[in-house]
């Protein structure tokens, strides 16, 4: 009987352990997600703010967008849900653009991340100008910021936001801070190799990000939300308490298809661990930065 009790104790501790971190702290509860009314909604018992909403997708865009009215840049589209797995961990969407391009999305929900696998296909006989697209993450609840002041030059929430410059995590507002554009305020950061005529028509920073990773800290600085895409067009701080890593399509010739992938991370506030994970997920970003 004693040996049976010892074995049972070993089973509880070794085989079915309570989720704990290496530091001995209880690990955050797994996140869950759903797509509804054009929003990807991520929720978690331990997630800062309770939920984080992403307009998925806000827009598909033509090139030549930097100094053009927004209405002339957007390619109308409709996204619909194809299916959700029984366990809710996989979501399939389809976006149909007005020019005939179809983008399929396989969204997989992990314990602390969302994985995106997209295929953009042009089955028409005419080239498409679909050049880039915007997933718009609303971070007011996560950062504890009031969205009512998001349109001022330096809204409170951007002090929680970051990108990477010269290999270092850099908080917003960056210096210098661009203030002139067709539409203001906001801030756009374009990587090397992206035409400066093809980005969001908000103030374009002279700062070049060294990484495709961007995100923000929670109100209590204990958590990080971050996102990255391959390929990516820009990093963008917007005017509705949002932060973007906007993905690149680069146009689609008649009959052409392209694959795009992305990540969202919901992790404890260790920039070092986040970067290591990002570099493993996006090794081509590290190679381009060197």
Please characterize this protein's 3D structure:
The chain has four helices and 17 strands. With 290 residues, the protein is mainly beta. The protein has a single domain (58-289), classed as Beta-galactosidase, Chain A, domain 5 (Distorted Sandwich). A hairpin with a 2-residue loop joins strand 10 and strand 11. Helix 3 crosses helix 4. The longest helix is centred in the N-terminal third of the chain and has 14 residues, at 2-15.
Characteristics of this structure?
290 residues; mainly beta; nine-stranded antiparallel beta sheet; eight-stranded antiparallel beta sheet; 4 helices; 17 strands; globular; disordered N terminus
List the helices and strands and how they pair.
Layout: H1 2-15, E1 32-36, E2 39-43, E3 51-61, E4 74-75, E5 77-84, E6 90-97, E7 102-109, E8 113-121, E9 132-138, H2 140-143, E10 161-165, E11 168-171, E12 187-189, E13 214-217, E14 223-230, E15 232-237, E16 242-248, E17 257-268, H3 271-281, H4 283-289
Antiparallel strand pairs: 1-2, 2-3, 3-4, 3-9, 5-6, 6-7, 7-8, 8-17, 9-16, 10-11, 10-13, 12-15, 13-14, 14-17, 15-16
Distance between the termini: 63 Å
Strand proportion, as a percent range, falls in: 35-45%
Mean pLDDT: 92
Q: What is the third-level CATH name, the topology? A: Beta-galactosidase, Chain A, domain 5
Count of discrete alpha- or pi-helical segments spanning 4 or more residues: 4
Structural class label:
mainly beta
Helix content: 10-25%
Please state how the strands of the largest beta sheet are arranged side by side. Answer: 5-6-7-8-17-14-13-10-11
CATH class descriptor name: Mainly Beta
Q: Enumerate the spans where pLDDT stays under 50 for 5 or more consecutive residues.
A: 1-22
Largest sheet: 9 strands, antiparallel
Strand/helix succession: HEEEEEEEEEHEEEEEEEEHH
Our count of domains comes out at: 1
Instruction: Label the overall shape.
Output: globular
Count of strand segments? 17
Provide the CATH architecture: Distorted Sandwich
Instruction: Give the radius of gyration.
Output: 21 Å
């Amino acid at each position: 009987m004693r040996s049976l009790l010892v074995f049972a104790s070993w089973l509880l501790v070794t085989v079915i352990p309570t989720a704990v971190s290496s530091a001995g702290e209880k690990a955050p509860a797994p996140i869950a997600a759903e797509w509804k009314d054009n929003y990807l909604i991520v929720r978690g018992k331990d997630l800062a703010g309770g939920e984080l909403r992403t307009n998925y997708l806000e827009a598909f865009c033509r090139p030549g967008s930097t100094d053009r009215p927004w209405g002339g840049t957007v390619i109308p589209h409709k996204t619909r849900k194809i299916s959700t797995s029984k366990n809710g961990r996989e979501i399939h969407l389809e976006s149909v653009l007005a020019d005939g391009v179809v983008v399929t999305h396989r969204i997989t929900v992990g314990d602390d991340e969302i994985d995106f696998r997209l295929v953009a296909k042009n089955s028409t006989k005419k080239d498409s100008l679909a050049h880039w697209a915007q997933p718009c993450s609303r971070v007011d609840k996560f950062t504890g910021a009031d969205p009512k002041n998001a349109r001022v030059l330096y809204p409170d929430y951007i002090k929680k936001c970051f990108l990477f410059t010269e290999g270092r995590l850099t908080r917003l507002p960056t210096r210098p801070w661009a203030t002139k554009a067709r539409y203001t305020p906001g801030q756009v950061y374009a990587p090397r190799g992206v035409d400066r005529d093809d980005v969001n028509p908000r103030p374009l920073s002279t700062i070049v990000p060294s990484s495709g990773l961007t995100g923000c800290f929670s109100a209590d600085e204990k958590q990080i939300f971050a996102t990255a895409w391959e390929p990516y067009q820009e990093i963008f701080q917007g005017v509705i308490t949002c932060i973007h890593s906007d993905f690149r399509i680069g146009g689609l010739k008649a009959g052409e298809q392209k694959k795009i992938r992305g990540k969202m991370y919901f992790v404890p506030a260790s920039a070092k661990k986040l970067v290591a994970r990002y570099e493993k997920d996006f090794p081509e970003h590290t190679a381009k930065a060197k």
